[in-house]
Amino acid sequence: MRRRRWSHAARHAALVAICTLMLLPFYWVLKTAVTDENIYVYPPRLLPRDPHPYNFVDVWYLIPFPRYLLNSALVSGLTVAGNVVLNAMAAYALTRPFPGRRWVLLLLLSCMLIPFQATIIPAYLITARMGLLNTYLGLALPMLSTIVCIFIYKSAFEAVPRSLIDAARIDGLSEWRIIARVLLPLSRPAIATNVILAFIWSWNSFMWPLIITRDADMQTLPLGLARFLSYMEDTTGALYAFVVMVLVPGIVVFLMAQSAFIRGLTAGATKG
Amino acid sequence: MAGWWESRRTRQTALVACFLLPSLAIFLLYRVIPLGWNLVLSFQSWSPMRPARWVGWENYEELLLYDDVFWQALANTLIWIAAAPVAIVLALGIALLVNSDLRGAGVYRTIVFLSYPLMTVAVGIIWRWMYDERGGLLNWALRSAGIIDRPLGFLGSFDLALPSVLLTDVWQVIGFYMIVLLTGLQSIPIHLYEAARVDGVPAWARFWRITLPMLRPSLFLCAVIGLLNSFTSFDLVYVMTNGGPGHATELLITYIYKLGFGQTRFDAAAAVTMVQFTLLLALTWLANRAAGGNAGAVERD
Amino acid sequence: MSWLLSRWVVLPAAMAAIVLSWNLWVATHAGGVVEGRVVDAAGRAVPGAEVVLYGRSFVTNDERQRTRAGDGGIFRFTGNASHALQLQAEAPGLGRSERVTVRLLFRAQDTRLPTPLRLEGAPLRIGGAPS
Fold it and tell me: Which chain B residues contact residue A86 at CB under 8 A?
């Protein structure tokens, strides 16, 4: 028993050390965001002195932060809506027997092997031909439906007892009503997973917006951040205030839906 | 005609087609067609200003024979991929620590995982600041401890830039590896361990004989994630060093971006993309073999 | 009605409430009024001192307004549209004050200087915004 307690204490100590290492960068940035320290000061102070919120005010006004936020929110909203609806439709179709079903499944599974980043050159050319450069739809389109999420929906739909659906069909419910009244309410965890994965992916997405936006007016938050960095380098607390403001929504959403997020990622991983 | 439409089967098929079409169109447009176009483009000489002309293997020849940056980027990408096993071993250690009846294991898990879902651009900026010569925590810690007596410019140095960016990448993805391994650990039936304990098998042997073999599928997944990571690390490199100094941190993916959108050499960029994609497929196949084939196999119908 | 208590309802609702009340607060306190006093080196009020208001552009501070202090050395600007401003007072024979930086929580926030602008009475260094 005594040995066991010691081993527990050692584990806690190791984990606390690891967690400290993981959290230190956050602390360092937060500290810089609320003080006026900059690259010309050595040694840096470990604790923030005279913390103040004015760097955040600067970010709000000096950079078109509200505009970036609006763009990011619109693109994320579009992506989330697209994923929830289109993926559910595709997944429902895949649970029905139809000719060529095997081929469609095979196509989806092999598409999963193609990382989106490997297609940027033609993807850019295609988007340009469609005239969608510099538009919200163009920003959201490649992520409007994701294969991983289709499979998450599919397994949720398949877990719904067959008898329930048959009973609903005998009662004369149309296909649409079966989806809306029976399948979707029973697959709430799958919906949550779709929402959070789509949100996090589009919120963080950088390379695609970088390629297809031209106007400063269409830039999303990650682009704004990179642009601010190129103006100001590391000289100012405002940059780190910007970082904090961009990270907070992601962290909040993640903490609120942690289990759905992890379920989605591991489910996606086991299928790809 | 009405009879035809009334047929349940037809209506069912029409419904399925309507439901599948939007998603399939997106995948066709952004996965299948681009891959094919990439392949075609890599054998052409083309840019938005010139009409396309077939040149056979010329793009590849130029890359492989004359392009030093390409080789540097390829080497860096391979180093990047080779760092994944190290990170996976570390993650396995953390997963083993967390996976027990430890109090507060959930909190530890959340904290370790927290860095993964964050915006990579922001992570890059955070770590630029950590590495900073004066305001950075790392230089301060090293100098206070007396290990170095002058500040190190981590990201500006030819030798240190790549390991520094790589460390940041590990910091970000290690939580994901841990979660995958943890899921694997929790799916190992507990009675295996109990039986081994009754038989007097020592702890380290239990680890080698039970835990590791049972974890194979999860380890394979981690390896694939590590491979894909060489594609997705574009954001990090772009923000932290943009490939520099020189091309010390150039990855294939950043080189593709520079060729395509910096120099409008879409044809050369397509050739590099094909090289990286082939590399990815080959390494995935190897990892699958190493994991005993068919590990993490896709579901079959 | 249990869904009303779920965190997916409570947290967004709380955030919406905070944003709404913050905006109400901002709307009612954004008159662009900047008030303060000017005193000389001995601490006596200086009526008639000239006060300059600089507003923050991206990285520089540009002059936006001038006014004169009235009775009791009290001055008042209206129509300030900046969120970070600097104030400096000057009176003939009494010299200049330091440039005082005032940072506001939002644009045009009504504000009052906590400490008066103190004329130093000595020839001063040129420019040089204190940070």
Answer: 22-23, 26
Closest partner residue to A57 (CB to CB) among C11, C58, C83 is C83
Question: Do C67 and C76 contact (CB within 8 A), yes or no?
Answer: yes
Q: Is B179 a residue whose pLDDT tops 70?
A: yes
The answer, for C106 touching chain A at a CB cutoff of 8 Å, is: yes
Q: If 0-12 CB within 10 Å is exposed, 13-18 middle and 19+ buried, where does residue C118 land?
A: buried
CB atoms within 10 A of CB A63: 21
Report the residue of chain A nearest B127, measured CA to CA: A25
- Decide if A197 contacts A149 (C-beta within 8 A): yes
Does the beta-carbon distance from A206 to B120 stay under 8 Å? yes
pLDDT of residue A172: 81
pLDDT at position A234:
60
How far from A207 is each of A5, A116, B164, B167, CA to CA, in Å?
49, 10, 21, 21
pLDDT confidence bin for A2, thresholds 50/70/90: low
**Both tokens of residue B90?**
């570390």
Contacts of B5 (CB under 8 A, 6+ apart): B11
pLDDT digits (tens, 9 = 90+) for B257-287: 999 888 888 889 999 999 999 998 898 888 8
The DSSP string of A150-178 is: HHHHHHHHHHS-HHHHHHHHHTT--HHHI
The rounded distance, in Å, linking the Cα atoms of A170 and C3 is 31
What residues contact A163, with CB distance under 8 A and at least 6 apart? none
Which candidate, A266, C101, A193, A143, places its Cα nearest to that of B182? A266
Instruction: Grade residue B300 by pLDDT with cuts at 50, 70 and 90.
Output: very low
The two counts, helices (H) then strands (E), for chain C are: 1, 9
CB A200 within 8 A of CB A194: no
Question: Rounded to whole angstroms, how far apart are CA atoms B176 and B88?
Answer: 10
- The C-alpha torsion from A190 through A195 and A199 to A200, rounded to 10°, is -30
The residues with which C77 forms a beta bridge, in sequence order, are C34
Between CA A1 and CA A244 the distance in angstroms is 45
**pLDDT level of residue A1 (50, 70, 90 thresholds):** low
Mean pLDDT value of segment A53-65? 86
Residue A189 C-beta-side C-alpha neighbours within 13 Å: 15
- Which ipTM value was assigned to this complex? 0.87
Residue A39 is predicted with a pLDDT of 58
Percentage of the residues of chain A whose pLDDT score is greater than 90: 26
